[in-house]
Design goal:
alpha+beta; PH-domain like; 4-stranded antiparallel sheet; 45% helix; 26% strand; elongated
Length: 164
């Protein structure tokens, strides 16, 4: 089988990737002790040492960044993705009997079926977990039912597909 499709790395695609990944990963807990330690350390530096106040304010600022990166995690992640140089570019996804290729202007990925440890099906796509670590998300909006069945059949030889 030979299948090729194109999609754009836009805000909607990144948002879908984040939401589907969040279904698979446990929710992160805010690190209150770490934030409190940063604030306390910052104030201690400002009050107890001869260092510049800017050093203490740096640690207090770090505490705010840590807090807001948790509170607004999705917006923070989406903003970073939208600032990336690949944002807005057309991506070519090719699937054949040997491998999956993801080709873009700045980055090309290719992995064989043996490189994939497992596939987790989410309501909107497939999350490919790689043996070397990392993962890659394929949206069902750019795949048809035949290709999804083909991916599952290729992976079942390596490891069964899990449904979330």
């Amino acid at each position: 089988m030979q299948f090729t499709t194109h999609f754009t790395l836009d805000r909607a695609h990144f948002s879908e990737c984040y939401e589907q990944s969040a279904l698979l990963n446990p929710a992160k807990k805010i690190r209150y002790k770490f934030i409190g330690a940063l604030v306390a350390f910052g104030f201690l530096i400002m009050i107890m040492t001869d260092q510049s106040v800017a050093v203490g304010l740096f640690f207090v600022g770090l505490a705010f960044v840590e807090f807001f990166s948790f509170k607004y995690g999705k917006a923070w992640w989406l903003s970073r993705q939208m600032w990336s140089k690949n944002s807005g570019n057309k991506i070519t996804l090719s699937i054949d009997d040997n491998e999956i290729k993801i080709i873009s202007l700045y980055q090309n990925q290719s992995f064989t079926w043996q490189d994939i440890e497992t596939v987790v099906e989410t309501p909107a796509g497939l999350m490919l977990k790689l043996k070397k670590g990392g993962q890659s998300y394929l949206s069902k909006s750019s795949l048809n039912d035949e290709v999804i069945a083909f991916i599952k059949s290729k992976i079942e030889a390596v490891m069964p597909v899990t449904k979330n």
